[in-house]
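Quick one, tokens below. Sequence please?
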């Protein structure tokens, strides 16, 4: 099973309008409420591809209840710790049909206390063995108010002690500190990688040297995705590269999460790194074809998979 942990999930309200009018009324042409948060996206993609997944994290208030219900309706097991006050955040994404312009209005999210963190730690460490053995546990997204940026380090150390391979996908200080726990894998995009190593990594040679620096921090596998540009999968004794297919991009929000979900499911099913990398690239591209925060369709993924080629560089 592939477990995910989302500390600051959301409900994402996607609104389509012709044109966003300021100081005036704008009519909504289409609206859709999606569960949101990076770990949750990973679980949803695993589920779309027919894999087993469980979503952990924090929820709060009625919005939190709704989030849990959304996942249950999709057939995704979830076990969220309910925070004592506040509400799970609702983000608003407005897409203008005329220009394709996207306006994102993000909420901060409810406050988590140290006791909530302990409860979460107890839940995710209880699943170490038994019928629900967890192969990978993904820690993804931002840290909610109330918790320190060292929280991923703490949780990753706890689960890796049980033999679960931790995967970290976050940014800034959370990533810097989380990496100190030596997770099995990280999946930065260009900007996250640059902030992690503290220098620019736009040219391919700079991306590769930055990725190798991350390996030296004790990580086993670094996947660097760069939107529509060539992505790299770097391990201790290999480097793979793949060009994302040319597709009609509608909204790449959640593409990285889709990459991760498909990549890990492929590994879980016993496929090698090269094939798993193809799955990841295809899943990211398939999600980029869907508007707003929507995730990939399985049919698109299957079609695109044939178009993806992986090259071994080293
Ligand atoms: N414009 C694009 N064209 C084709 N494929 C794309 C495009 N954008 C993203 N993808 C696919 O999705 C993968 C991940 O995308 P990206 O690097 O944008 O992730 P990300 O920044 O982590 O996204 P997020 O955090 O919102 O999920 C890419 O490696 C690629 O396979
Ligand atoms: Mg990402």
């Amino acid at each position: 099973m592939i477990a995910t942990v989302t500390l600051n999930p959301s409900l994402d309200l996607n609104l389509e309008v012709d044109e966003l009018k300021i100081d005036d009324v704008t009519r909504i042409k289409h609206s859709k409420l999606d569960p949101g948060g990076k770990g949750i996206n990973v679980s949803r993609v695993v589920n779309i591809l027919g894999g087993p997944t469980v979503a952990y994290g924090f929820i709060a208030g009625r919005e939190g209840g709704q989030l849990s219900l959304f996942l249950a309706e999709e057939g995704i097991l979830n076990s969220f710790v309910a925070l004592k006050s506040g509400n799970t955040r609702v983000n608003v994404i407005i897409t203008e049909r005329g220009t394709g312009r996207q306006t994102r209005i993000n909420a901060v999210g409810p406050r988590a206390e140290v006791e909530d963190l302990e409860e979460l730690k107890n839940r995710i460490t209880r699943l170490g063995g038994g019928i629900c053995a967890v192969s990978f546990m993904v820690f993804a997204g931002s840290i909610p108010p109330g918790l320190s940026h060292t929280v991923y380090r703490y949780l990753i150390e706890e689960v890796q002690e049980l033999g679960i391979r931790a995967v970290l996908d976050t940014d800034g200080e959370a990533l810097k500190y989380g990496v100190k726990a030596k997770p099995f894998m990280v999946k930065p995009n260009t900007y996250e990688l640059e902030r992690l190593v503290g220098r620019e990594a736009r040219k391919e040679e700079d991306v590769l040297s930055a990725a190798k620096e991350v390996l030296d921090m004790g990580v086993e596998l670094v996947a660097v995705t760069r939107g529509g540009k060539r992505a790299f999968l770097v391990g201790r004794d290999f480097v793979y590269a793949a060009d994302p297919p040319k597709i009609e991009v509608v909204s790449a929000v959640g593409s990285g999460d889709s990459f991760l979900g498909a990549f890990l499911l492929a590994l879980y099913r016993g496929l090698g790194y090269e094939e798993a990398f193809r799955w990841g690239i295809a899943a990211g591209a398939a999600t980029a074809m869907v508007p707003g925060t929507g995730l990939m369709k399985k049919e698109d993924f299957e079609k695109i998979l044939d178009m993806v080629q992986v090259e071994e560089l080293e």
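Residues 273-288 form the longest helix (16 residues). Residues 189, 225-228, 231, 244, 247, 249, 252-257, 259, 281, 284-285, 288 surround adenosine-5'-triphosphate (ligand 1) (CB under 6 Å).
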